[in-house]
Specification:
- The complex is a heterooctamer.
- Chain A is an all-alpha fold.
- In chain A, 81% of the residues lie in helices and 0% in strands.
- Chain A has helices at residues 3-22, 26-46, 50-74.
- Chain A is flat and about 45 Å long.
- The model of chain A has no long low-confidence stretch (mean pLDDT 86).
- With 274 residues, chain C is mainly α.
- Chain C starts with a helix and ends in a 9-residue tail after the last helix.
- The model of chain C has no long low-confidence stretch (mean pLDDT 83).
- With 491 residues, chain F is mainly alpha-helical.
- Chain F is built from 20 helices and three strands.
- Chain F has helices spanning 8-25, 30-50, 52-56, 80-107, 112-131, 135-153, 159-191, 208-221, 233-236, 242-269, 271-277, 280-300, 304-325, 328-359, 370-373, 375-389, 395-409, 413-439, 458-476, 479-489; strands at residues 3-5, 60-69, 72-78.
- Chain F has a three-stranded mixed sheet with strand order 1-2-3.
- In chain F, strand 2 and strand 3 form a beta hairpin.
- Chain F is globular and about 65 Å long.
- Classes of the chains: A mainly alpha (81), B mainly alpha (107), C mainly alpha (274), D mainly alpha (183), E mainly alpha (138), F mainly alpha (491), G mainly alpha (494), H mainly alpha (95).
- The interface between C and E is large, with 66 and 62 residues.
């Protein structure tokens, strides 16, 4: 019953992943990485893994992104690839 | 009851649609923020209302508390969404992003 | 490198796809993974542990030992960030802000030290005053986030969540405080020392609860043996043990997240963050 | 724990009145926290209630000055006025949204919009009032607050003339009324 | 057509996890920027989590929290059927894995900051050039 | 054969090991230190000799220390062959220590404590190798000996000794690891044991090619035996102080190599197996080449110690040659040559050292006329040379005689020619030195600046006299050693 | 109730936490706390080893749940041996590190000890556990701690080396996790013995094959088998010496243990050597690893770096031995775990002494060290000889079994590689010896000055005693290797 | 009713594609931020809807709530970056 959502979200996940590693700005990477985590969280929720979804929401969307932004803040946004 | 719920949800979806279209169509960053910040907020509001109403179908104290909890989301979004929007637009200003103007386009 | 990477990736991918050939279908209720252990957990866990959230039951009881090390990993990460980045040394150039007026002083002489405290604050050079709207809104939100985080910790038994998620949320509430005000505010409210102690203390609560079981005559982490120490319904002793453990996890994770953030964002100088 | 106690003591001064002030704000925070706990929890298990009490106490003890930093008398009044302000606001929001929807779906959208930034000054003093106004502006027709400082100066990005002209207007009055400030 | 759809649905998760993992692995190997590599690393780890969670999924089953069992007072009232609930074990494992990955991520970020402090760049080839400038190691 | 379990072999090995800490701690008091060396040497010799009667009775003394794997343990077993070698080593150790005291002090060398310590360690290893009950133990002590002698070879710590030390190790350690170790493990793999036994340990598990390869690996692998082409470490090692060259590179080290080969041939392969596969000829050919080439090179050397070194190379091959004859006479001749050559060659080295200490001269061409100034030394040199050449009345004659008989017994007439030719060559490169020493014109007579030259100090002269005398005595009384060989090899 | 098995792991963990608290309260306390923790752990490990030898495998149920449900510690002879080894070495190293930690990371010694203890906890847990997933978590603890430690070392290169270590380490651990996932998918269980039972019915499955390959690759990456070794030399040589001394001997060895554990307990010999035909390929890989490690070591100019490449080479020994498919090879591999840990420990202790005094261990800076630090150098010589494989040091005896195993399996190339690597090691170490022995001391006037005693500047006594003890233990372990094989390894393999 | 929820959810997912476009291709970083923010708000609703699909919405509300919090924190952090650092166009980094 949930497979259509699952399928679409999975495709989004792939989009986000590809974008996150190919974008030429680390801050954008951080932001897209956050979006990637959103998608992942959704995916876990669809698959019924509420605890995992919760963790992913708190970790991936929250602190991970913040750490990432903090690190980019302290280093540089520049990237060649 | 179901009809009200469906109505709310469809309205919410409609708001979201407007937001999405706005995000795509608007010419610059600042104008995009308008649909993104407002329409989504209201979309959430409408949808959560619909959903919490649906939740109250089998009325019980617990269901009421649950609906209240859902409204906490709304409360939260109403506080945070404009703040986030403001923060982003402020960021754009500080970063020196110039906003789109008609004159510029004409000239 | 790109080409080598591509080849390695293709090889690995082919290997993995080869392995998926024999997988049971996605969501197949009869797959081996869903019958052997999982059935026992699903059918017996509530009875054995009195915890309706099976994930918590397995996480904190059946496989509580894993979770203990997981907490230790978080503690370790916090400590590692502290160890790697914390910088106690004084830079030659320093910036001070007059607290009342917000005027920033740039001190180039390394010997001249202004007394930081009420009047002057030690600053980073790219300091910007915090935004009023963000500040106000976050001020209002933070206590709610915190009570929510504590709720998540306490309700790990009944609903998704638990010590880790709650801890992360609590930690991010502290981070939010640091973002909306500045790092100084956070550190004046929650001292670095307190964070350091809490990180260790949280794990210690977990390990301690486990270790107390040993002199009580049980195996490590065997909560049942704690009955004589805890008042209340002996049937719920496992649930209570899990609660205690979750609280420990929550404390440790909160502190660790805050420590990691603080150290990364200020490069360990603890003056000014995002 | 003693550390933060000291801090608290420094902040509010040693006078009795200040102590009661902070105690009062602590108490209110505690009540708020406990209420939200109950809403969140939805269970009335004694253990959970106890935990809720402890948690609320903990949060209130450490962070009471965040939620209600300066406990003014008549806060209750403000609260009720605020509640009455909310429906109006929501209505405004809905109006704003329809306006935006119209814009978003309009085929010649770019001819309709005319973004620009306006600046105006208000006499609002308290942080909370400024913030409320700023967020209300953000939520309502075609305008987003860019900056708002503690002097009450607002910079607003408006999507079209119409929205810009409406400012500060009624909203400012309403907000000022809610927080009992002069316009 | 239906067969194809069934096949896709049955294996889609597993295929996509492989693809995701390969994206992550490729980023880790081929990218030049250290933080990009870290992102690749995280994608790699989430791919594994996806794999595990996919294992645990069961059709027509609900989330692994026993219904109608508040506080376990009436726990024995209802018989629990294993088929009704999703397998909790992979979730448990993945909780741990997520925690581990975020811990690693944090430490790696700290390391990246350290590297930047030292070399003023995060590009690997540039760092290598700097290393040559520093001279032979001591 | 009756076997007695006793701790004596272990003690004999460990005595000089135990004395090392004492030596190190008394490094600031040379006299105390040297008396300890002397005491240790005596104790060692007494311990070794105390086992002699038992061995002569045809019994064996055994002691197993550590069981590493079934059939491969660290164990001692004293039999005739080992006893013979141990006696030679232990007795010469005492003599050499007296000599080295004189030598080192005479030249005021640095690092004397280090020198004597490693010397003691080396001698321990030598005795250990002699008493080994199996190939593993033998290999163990062989390696310890290699390593213990390295600091001795490199004693001068200058560029020359560095190069020599490097070459020394490359050859000794390299061959033992690269050849002996796999060969040994292969033996163990095939047979499951490494114990020496006169019948050999291989029943019929080996094909001829395998046996040949294995044997060659052993023969070349024990590079201390100086079989060509793995000989060049020996001349290089002559940079070491002379006592080292004397004891170790004439007696202990090289003889351990030879002894190991003998052990392998008699104890691992067994005479019968070698005869069966006709492998003796192979080894003999190799040995003959070494004998002849070594002698020829020795002829061309001007530095006395190098000439002695090449002589050693060729003489060592006699022993292998004798064993490879696989006939009782040949075996006897070969093994007894260990003893005879030891006493002969050590005398020669002592003399070389004494000359160097007394005059600072290293080259033969500088030595004309020295015999008149240093009569004792040169007389001893003459006796030693006789022993090496194989002239009566020195012990060398006895072994050469037996070797020739052995060739006849084995009907290898061509190889007899090798022996004869080599004896002539020996005579060619030794006797001119003696002649020059006694009858040549000294430098003074050439009109160079007069140098006061006299006999070296007593510590140097007495040992060389003793060894020279023993070398002669052995011609008349070789019985003990002959009996030991007979007991040991069951001839 | 016998709680020693849990205590082995818990004691250092508790000590780590208390040390972590002490950082903020009284930093000086953390060292004694750490010592006590490790002492308790080592004592428990010893007790457990004795018990296992007496009465066979010990099963310890964490939280009291029966094995497939809960996590189980399953301590058999192999485990117990490695546990004792790990805790013993960690304890000894801690004894020796007091001074060098003060020197290198003085202002944050408390945190250093905490992380050190966590690292040891991880290693001990990896060794003791009988659960596949628990193993992963503990591997991650060890990895995370080592990332931190490596970055703490060399200021210039440490963080970068550490970051590279992070990438490769995460790939390794993830591969392992993925392999466990595949196994779990097929068996539905995580307990090693349980998995093995279920697996015996489904040997032909491609999923199991992939699971096996993934697990192995993961572990190989973690243990730095040759083509996957790139992280190791930098990581180990740039870490603070007090940590390098414990990570270099233990980390890779414990991973080898994990590999052997997976091979024997989880997948089973039948599966690996009969259903699959990978063994030859792996032995070849090991052969190449040995040669490559040795050759790369040859080109190094820094002693620490050189030793790290020797570790790469030694890993080849153990992997090859384990994959020989016969008892002798496996015996050799297991014995080599013990011996190599001791040898590497001894070597790194010596390097630690040198670093303490000289601050650098570039080969050119070691001139005249024999005169300066005679005791240290004596230990170095012993350890080096052991690495070369000179009897009676222990290195020889494991090599003995390995070569025997190679002969039995017909893997002559492996035996040849062993011999060649021994030779190369000999060249390597004698190169160092020559420098230390022949080159004049830099600050000394004339070297041939006969009786002048060189100024002896030895490392502190605590370091010397430990390094001396360990060096001597190399000989003792060598001489008693027969006993070890007979009482521990052979009963285990049967 | 659940079919209806499903279709609403699919509709939201479809709309997410628009925001996703902004997030993936947005010319400036801040455009991406807007996109992600919009995705976040939709995700909150989606989570609730999934809860209704599972008929266990009480469990999913927590996640949605946490989600809303943390999305806010993340967006705030990302935008705070620009309060202190200048430079917006990633194109400017191409060299």
């Amino acid at each position: 019953m949930h497979w259509p959502i699952d399928l679409i979200v999975l495709t989004f996940v792939i989009f986000c992943a590809v974008a996150a590693i190919s974008v030429k700005d680390l801050l954008a990477t951080a932001i897209l990485f956050g979006a990637y985590s959103f998608m992942m969280c959704l995916l876990w929720a669809v698959m019924g893994a509420v605890d995992v979804a919760f963790t992913e929401a708190s970790v991936g969307a929250g602190v991970s992104t913040v750490f990432f932004v903090a690190a980019v803040f302290r280093t540089s946004r520049r990237t060649k690839d | 009851m179901d009809i009200i719920v469906i109505l709310f949800l469809v309205i919410g979806l409609f708001f979201f649609l407007g937001g999405a279209v706005g995000i795509i169509r608007m010419p610059d960053f600042y104008t995009r923020l308008h649909p993104a910040g407002k329409l989504d907020t209201l979309g959430i509001f409408a949808m959560v209302t619909g959903l919490s109403l649906y939740n109250l179908q089998h009325f019980s104290f617990e269901a009421l508390l649950l609906s209240a909890k859902m409204f906490l989301i709304v409360f939260f979004v109403f506080l945070s969404s404009p703040t986030a929007t403001h923060s982003i637009v402020d960021a754009g200003m500080r970063a020196g992003l110039r906003h789109w103007t008609k004159k510029k386009r004409r000239g | 490198m790109k080409f080598i990477g591509f080849v390695i990736v293709c090889l690995t991918g082919a290997l993995l796809l080869y392995g998926t050939g024999e997988f049971p279908d996605w969501g197949d209720p009869a797959s081996p993974a869903s019958i052997h252990l999982s059935n026992h957990y699903i059918e017996k866990a509530l009875e054995e542990t009195q915890v309706p959230n099976l994930v918590t039951a397995v996480l904190a009881d059946y496989r509580g030992f894993d979770t203990m090390f997981e907490t230790a990993v978080v503690f370790c990460a916090g400590l590692a960030c502290f160890l790697l980045l914390r910088d106690f040394s004084r830079k030659k150039e320093r910036f001070y802000r007059h607290t009342a007026t917000g005027v920033i002083l740039h001190v180039k002489d390394s010997k001249k030290v202004l007394k930081t405290g009420k009047e002057f604050e030690h600053m980073d050079k790219d300091w910007v005053p915090s935004d009023l709207i963000i500040k106000t809104i976050c001020r209002i939100l933070i206590p709610f986030i915190q009570i929510y985080a504590l709720y998540v910790v306490a309700h790990g038994d009944f609903s998704p969540g638990g010590g880790f998620q709650g801890g992360v949320i609590f930690g991010s509430s502290l981070i939010l405080l640091a973002i909306s005000y500045d790092l100084k505010t956070l550190l004046s409210r929650v001292k670095e020392k307190v964070l350091g102690i809490f990180a260790a203390l949280g794990v210690l609560i977990y390990v301690g609860i486990g270790a107390i079981c040993m002199p009580m005559g049980g195996n490590f982490l065997d909560y049942v043996k704690l009955v004589p120490l805890v008042p209340g319904d002996p049937h719920h002793i496992r649930a209570l043990g899990m609660l205690g453990v979750e609280i420990g996890v929550g404390i440790a994770v909160t502190a660790a997240m805050a420590v990691i953030y603080i150290n990364i964002v200020s490069e360990g100088r603890h003056d000014e963050g995002l | 724990m003693t550390d933060s106690n000291n801090n608290v003591a420094k902040k509010v001064g040693d006078t009795r009145a200040a102590f009661f002030k902070s105690f009062f704000s602590f108490l209110i925070t505690f009540v708020f926290m406990f209420l939200s706990w109950i809403v969140l929890s939805g269970k009335f298990d004694p253990l959970l209630l106890w935990l809720g009490g402890i948690s609320s106490f903990f949060v209130a003890y450490y962070f009471y000055d965040l939620l209600f930093p300066a406990m003014e008398p008549g806060y209750g009044k403000v609260f009720f006025r605020f509640i009455s302000y909310v429906p109006w606001l929501i209505w405004e929001i809905i109006k704003a949204n329809f306006h935006l929807l119209y814009l978003a779906f309009h085929p010649q959208m770019k001819d309709l919009i005319d973004p620009h930034i306006i600046t105006f000054k208000t006499n609002l003093k308290s942080d909370i009032a400024i913030t409320t106004l700023a967020n209300s502006i953000t939520l309502t027709p075609g305008t987003i607050t860019v900056t708002a400082d503690s002097d009450g100066v607002f910079r607003v990005h408006a999507i079209d003339r119409e929205s810009a002209d409406a400012l500060p207007g009624t909203m400012l009055k309403k907000v000022a009324k809610v927080f009992g400030e002069k316009i | 057509m239906t067969d194809l759809l069934t096949l896709i649905v049955a294996k889609y998760n597993y295929w996509l996890y492989v693809i995701l993992m390969m994206i992550g692995l490729y980023a880790m190997i081929a990218k030049n920027n250290l933080i990009k590599k870290l992102v690749g690393m995280n994608i790699f780890q989430t791919a594994i989590i996806l794999f595990y969670v996919s294992i645990g999924y069961k059709k027509d089953a609900t989330i692994p929290i026993i219904q109608n069992a508040h506080g376990g007072h009436d726990a024995h009232a209802a018989v629990i059927h294993a088929a009704d609930y999703i397998n909790p074990l992979p979730h448990v494992l993945m909780l741990t894995a997520i925690v581990v990955s975020v811990a690693t991520f944090g430490v790696a970020m700290a390391l990246a900051v350290r590297v930047y402090q030292r070399y003023q760049t995060l590009e690997e080839d540039e760092i290598r050039m700097r290393l040559v400038d520093i001279g032979p190691e001591k | 054969m009756e076997t007695i379990i006793s701790i004596k072999p272990l003690l004999a090995v460990l005595v000089s090991l135990f004395v090392i800490p004492v030596l190190v701690s008394s490094s600031s008091k040379p006299n105390v230190r040297e008396s300890w060396i002397f005491v240790a040497g005596i104790i060692k010799l007494v311990l070794v000799l105390s086992m002699l009667p038992v061995i002569l009775d045809g019994k064996q003394i055994a002691l197993t220390l550590f069981e590493i794997a079934p059939g491969a343990s660290i164990a001692f077993r004293v039999d005739g062959l080992g006893m013979l070698f141990a006696i030679v080593a232990a007795s010469l150790y005492i003599v050499t220590s007296i000599y080295s005291i004189g030598y080192m002090r005479g030249l005021n060398e640095h690092g004397q404590t280090r020198f004597v310590s490693f010397f003691a360690l080396a001698i321990s290893a030598t005795i250990g190798a002699a008493f080994s009950a199996n190939l593993l133990t033998l290999y163990l002590f062989y390696e310890i000996l290699s390593l213990a002698t390295y600091p001795l070879v490199a004693h001068h710590q200058d560029e020359k000794s560095r190069i020599s030390g490097r070459r020394y190790l490359t050859f000794i350690l390299g061959t033992s690891i690269a050849l002996v170790l796999p060969a040994m493990i292969y033996c163990y793999h095939v047979t499951g044991t490494l114990e020496f036994s006169t019948a050999g340990i291989f029943a019929d598990q080996l094909s001829k090619p395998a046996a040949t390869v294995l044997l060659l690996m052993f023969v070349f692998g024990f590079a201390k035996a100086g079989i060509m082409p793995f000989h060049s470490w020996l001349p290089a090692a002559m940079v070491a102080p002379t006592p080292v060259s004397a004891l170790l590179h004439a007696v202990a080290v090289v003889k351990v190599g030879v002894f190991s080969i003998v052990r392998v041939m008699t104890g691992i392969f067994g005479v019968d197996l070698l005869a069966h596969f006709n492998l003796g000829v192979v080894v003999m050919t190799i040995a003959s080449i070494t004998i002849l080439v070594g002698s020829c090179i020795a002829l061309s050397q001007d530095e006395l110690k190098r000439r002695l070194a090449y002589s050693t190379i060729s003489q060592l091959s006699y022993i292998i040659f004798g064993v490879a004859l696989l006939s009782p006479q040949g075996l006897l001749g070969g093994v007894i040559h260990i003893v005879m050559h030891a006493f002969g060659k050590i005398t020669l080295f002592f003399c070389a050292g004494a000359i160097y200490v007394a005059t600072g001269k290293k080259y033969i061409s500088q030595m004309s006329g020295l015999g008149k100034k240093m009569p004792f030394t040169f007389a001893a040199f003459f006796i030693g040379a006789m022993g090496v050449i194989g002239l009566p009345p020195s012990g060398g004659f006895y072994s050469k005689w037996n070797l020739i008989l052995g060739t006849l017994e084995a009907q290898q007439t061509i190889f007899m020619l090798v022996l004869l030719v080599s004896s002539f060559l020996n005579a060619f490169y030794f006797l001119p030195i003696v002649y020059k020493g006694f009858f040549g014109k000294s430098e003074e007579e050439d009109g160079n600046a007069p140098v006061k030259i006299a006999e070296a100090n007593l510590c140097l002269v007495i040992p060389l006299m003793i060894t020279a005398i023993i070398s002669i005595v052995l011609f008349f009384y070789p019985t003990v050693f002959v009996n030991l060989i007979k007991v040991g090899l069951g001839i | 109730m016998n709680n020693y098995p849990a205590l082995i792991v818990i004691a250092p963990l508790l000590a780590a936490l208390f040390a972590g608290l002490a950082v903020w309260i009284k930093e000086r306390l953390s060292y004694p706390i750490a010592l006590i923790g490790l002492a308790v752990s080592a004592f428990s490990a010893f007790k457990v080893l004795m018990q296992v030898i007496d009465s066979g495998t010990i099963q310890y149920r964490m939280a009291g749940w029966a094995p497939p449900m809960g996590i189980e510690y399953r301590i058999d002879l192999l485990n117990a041996m490695v546990l004792l080894l790990v805790s013993g070495i960690a304890f000894l190293n801690l004894l020796a590190s007091c001074k060098s930690v003060d020197q290198e990371v003085n202002d944050r010694a408390g945190s250093f000890y905490t992380i050190y203890l966590l690292f040891v906890t991880g290693l001990l847990g990896v060794t003791a556990t009988g659960d596949l997933f628990n193993l992963y978590v503990l591997i991650e603890i060890t990895s995370l701690t080592s990332y931190a430690m490596v970055a703490l070392g060399d200021r210039d290169r440490g963080p970068l080396a550490s970051l590279n270590y992070v990438f490769i380490g995460v790939i390794g651990a993830s591969f392992y996790l993925l392999g466990v996932g595949y196994l779990y998918l097929k068996t539905g269980s995580l307990n090693m013995v349980d998995v093995a039972n279920i697996l015996s019915g489904i040997h032909g499955s491609s999923t199991v094959l992939v699971a096996f390959i993934l697990c192995m690759i993961g572990i190989w990456i973690k243990m730095a088998l040759f083509p996957m070794h790139v992280w190791l030399p930098n990581a180990y040589s740039y870490s603070p010496i007090a940590f390098a001394r414990v990570v270099a001997p233990l980390m890779t060895k414990v991973m080898v243990y994990v590999m052997i554990r997976l091979m024997i307990t989880v997948f089973g010999f039948d599966y690996i050597f009969e259903s699959l035909s990978l063994a030859d390929a792996v032995v070849w890989l090991a052969t190449i690893a040995i040669l490559a490690g040795a050759v790369m070591a040859l080109s190094q100019k820094n002693l620490k770096k050189m030793l790290t490449y020797i570790i790469v080479c030694e890993i080849g020994y153990m992997v090859g031995g384990a994959w020989m498919g016969n008892q002798l090879g496996m015996t050799g591999a297991i014995l080599h775990i013990l011996n190599d840990a001791l040898m590497t420990f001894a070597l790194f202790l010596v390097v630690g002494n040198m670093v303490y005094k000289l601050k650098t261990v570039d080969l050119v800076d070691l001139k005249g060290l024999f005169g300066k630090m005679p005791w240290t150098m004596a230990g170095f010589v012993l350890a080096a000889l052991s690495i070369i494989g000179v009897p009676p040091t222990c290195g020889f005896f494991s090599k003995w079994y390995l070569i025997l195993g190679a002969f039995e399996a017909g893997a002559y190339h492996f035996a040849a590689a062993l011999i060649i690597s021994s030779l190369i090691c000999a060249v390597l170490f004698f190169k160092v010896f020559e420098i230390c022995f022949f080159e004049p001391m830099p600050e000394e006037h004339g070297h041939m000055d006969s009786h002048s005693h060189a100024v002896i500047e030895e490392a502190p006594v605590s370091m010397l005693i430990v390094s001396g003890l360990v060096s001597l233990s190399l000989i003792v372990a060598g001489l008693y290797s027969g006993t070890i094989v007979n009482t521990i390894i052979l009963p285990f393999l049967k | 009713m659940s079919t209806f929820f499903l279709s609403i959810a699919l509709g939201l997912l479809f709309l997410m594609l628009f925001s996703m476009y902004r997030a993936l291709f947005g010319p400036t970083v801040l455009d991406r931020l807007i996109g992600v923010n919009a995705i976040g708000s939709k995700t909150v609703i989606l989570l609730l809807l999934i809860g209704f699909l599972y008929e266990r919405v009480d469990m999913f509300v927590d996640i949605a709530l946490a989600y809303a919090f943390l999305n806010f924190v993340a967006v705030l952090a990302a935008s705070r970056y620009f309060h202190k650092r200048k430079g917006l166009y990633e194109e400017s980094f191409m060299d």
